[in-house]
Amino acid sequence: MDDAALVHAWRSGDASAGERLVERHFSAVYGFFRHKIGSDVEDLVQRTFLRCVEARDAFRGESSFRTYLFAIARNELFGHYRRRGLDVDPDATASGVLDAVAGPASAIDARREHRLLVRALRGLALDDQIALELMYFEELTGPEIAVVLGVPEGTARTRLRRARLALERSLAELDASGEGMRATTDDIERWAGAMREAMRAERAARR
Amino acid sequence: MNDTRTEADPERSGNGPPLSLEAARVLNRVKAGLFARHDEVTVDRFVLVRRLGSGGMGEVLLAYDPELDRKVAIKLLHRELGQPNADAGLLREARAAARLQHPNVVMIFELGRAGDRLFVAMEYVEGRTLRAWLRERQRTRTEILLAFEQAGRGLAAAHDAGLVHRDFKPDNVLVGEDGRVRVADFGIASLVDGSSETPDGRAATSPVAGTPRYMAPEQYGGADVDPRADQFAFCVSLWEALAGTSPFVAASAGELAAKVADGELASPPRSMPRALVRALQRGLSVDPGRRFADMRGLLDAVARVRTAPRRRATVVGVAGAIVLGGAAARQLAPAHTDCAAPDLPPLVTTEAAWVDRLAREGESTANARDALAALQSFEARWHDAVGQACDATHVRGERSTAVLDARMACLTRLHQRARVLVDMLSTVDRAGAWRAIDAAVELPPPARCMGVEGAAVPDDPCTIELDARLDEATTLRELGRPGEALDAARTAVAAARECGPSTRLAEARTLAASLAADNQVPGADDELRRAATGAIAEDAYAAMAQAATRLAGLEGAERGRPAEARAWIEIADAAAQRSGDDILVTDVMVAKAGLELEFGAVDDASALADSAWSRRRREFGDDHPRVARVLTLRAWVEQYRLRWDEASALHAEAAEILGHWYPADHPAFAANHAATAVIAAARGRVDEAEAAHRRAIALLERARGPTHRDVGVPLTNLASLLAESGRPEEALTLADRVEAIATADQNSRLLDAAVVVRGVALAETGRLAEAEIAWRRVLELRAVSQGPNDPGTAMAHYSLCRVLTMEAQFDDALEHCRRAIAVEEFTYGRAHPSLFDTLELLAEAAQGAQRLPEAIAALERAAALGDDDDAVAALRARADALRGSAAGR
To answer: What pLDDT shows up at residue B310?
Structure first.
């Protein structure tokens, strides 16, 4: 069964379809929140899946389910910050917020480059961070990222370009502080690729 | 083991990152939330709570053991189980480690396999690794030495048991929140590496991380190693902690191996005492035969360095060079620039004679061991405070040297008090042996000295004598010798008069008066009042708060006079606030919560207990007996609200904390058993209640002796239970015993309680005339000892009313019921639930005495107080019936 069929079955009361759907996409959603919040992500993961089947904004098959799921997750993330009294402007650099709430680095951060990449990402505006992560780790396309961010396609492309530059700068700053290493766009692509493979392996084991 | 196995599959850990158990746990909880599915992630029977970290050996997880209801740390080893024969040997060694019990060794509870991986379930230590502890801030040399000496004792104990650690390093040592240092992972190193494997391969790929840095030369060869390899690793670790760099400076694994093999040591920092350098160099000898014969030899040498007199103490640390630079920049003012820690002999030495004495007198090595641990914890905190004081002045330059002097004076005084305790422990008697842990726990937390800004070390003989007597009095009191304590306090008062007016006089007077009250000396309350008012004159707010708190206790718990008690406790509160001593403020808060609970103001008591609880945790850390005591108070609040489950949970939480400090057969648990008994009795589980009472009695009899007044209390409770559950004859026997204890002890409260129980039991056996005599005796006792408004007086009137009603002497009965109501109203207010029974009885007596309006009114009042619908309906029906018969007349 594909995602759309599972969603439909779940909405018609088939809990096992719901479970399959959750198991299939759990790692992606979990990773999404885990990178940004650290611990205590259960509630957000659960809310995200719940929203998928709620009538009001249920998935209608217009975009890919994954895209739709990340759009919900992004909304939940902002909702989470708002509930904690941290009104986050998606365009603002969110490092202050993130430093305050970020928990222990996830298992993926085991290697030094990965740690650096995650740290550098955390220095970016929240939506830049989301866009880059979705591109690097989840291999979402430009149009898909536009759907997640709720912006026109052109805007999404501009944002991605800008975000990549910001990431390079951020890595360069870590470099200047002696903690980082000089990184080219190619390096970033390579590290991200390695992390993606690692995450994929984890996901494969889950199925 | 469903999801865990997928997650823990070691096949995959080679290329990808280790799979996260945390993720599995979240997935399961999300599924539980969405689909009401509950498959917890478990390893064996342990339910995983969260991941604590991961290291070379494997993942460490916090888990919960539902069988024993405690937290455990689970180490899930990377190593797969291989050849059964090789594994059997390794497992045998790990099992031997699991039998090792020592305060400085992390206890292993269980070994097992989860899927195809080995796991080790061990004691969960709230704290951090020794490495993290070293990095937290600059540690003084003494702090470092003390921590390593503790770890060394753990190693020595393991060596005695025939075990070799093989992988000792700061990452394998934990420093608990309580300051106690524990060596972890005995026998586990071999489970992971295998004894025949040479580590060269690993060393080549990771020159920094891992074990080679601490390995003895003989370990490189893969030869079978003995305890002296641990001694080597210990010395590398200690050198590194003190100097900030390894004794073997190498750029690569190969160079490191070569230097270790040649014994090519770096030159020691100049700040390191020569004797210490010599000890470490010996421990680092290439030839094991040239090292110390055992750990104890090394530890003695280290301890001698630590306790040797020295001209100046130096702040050292991992980043020693930076610190010294910073300190040097500020070393412009002469004289006080050296942060001289008070040069005091250590409290806890490796094999102190008093430990043996405690074990002998208390007939329990566990008791002695835990007392030692409690003192170790104190000493570690003391050195921590010394280090912080030094940092604040010399490293950070935030505080003046005058502040430093005041803090050091305070810390010195504290250390002296602890010294008095240790000295007394070497001549301690049986009762004192069982109180040793309490006395250690009651030592003020050294961190409180950080708030001190005035006062200096006294140098005149009179004040020194005065302080010594005060410490002695306080310590004797903690050790359960109130009579001798009072003598010492009186001497202190005399000395304080000599030394002229000072806050010390107020302090001494308060202590003497409080002890007079403890000893039930006539006129003690006047003495306390004088101490309190005298303290005002001296501006001695702490002493005033203490005197007022004791007075409040006297008026409240012992006399049952809420108005007076509340007035004193308010004064105590204000004085404590004014004194600026936060811990004292919390003490008063706890006392106030206890009083309010006693007076039935449950919500007030609850609010006070809750804030006292969070304050205590801030002051002492989560895991401290003084926190447990507030938890017990919170439990009593829940009991008062008849919320038994909540009360039980809180009692269990308190017991868990106490379990970390006291052996299971210690009287500290008597209150817990008593509470269990009360809850069981309230739920109608008489057998369970009786068993719990008997447990409490057994603990106290052993620790205090069979005729001690403390034994009288649970005996009375048991007698009361038996009297009310159809076994009045047994109750009477127990009452005889309590009365004998009370008479010998001249303890009027206990005597009173015994006679009350006797009255109840006699009434139950139908010996009403004797019961009447008993109750009248209670009233006589009370008329002498206490005011007429004691809640116990109400009990006596109530019981007399009951007996007389049974004997159909309704007029007399009614009079006693009226008095009981009057006292209860005075104590609890007009609308308290405890008036319910008395009102019901009064109605019966009034009905018998043909005073129907009074009976009807009482029934209506009782109905308004009742919370059980059926009972209320029955009362209303009776009232209506009486109205009917009144109208019919």
So the answer is: 44
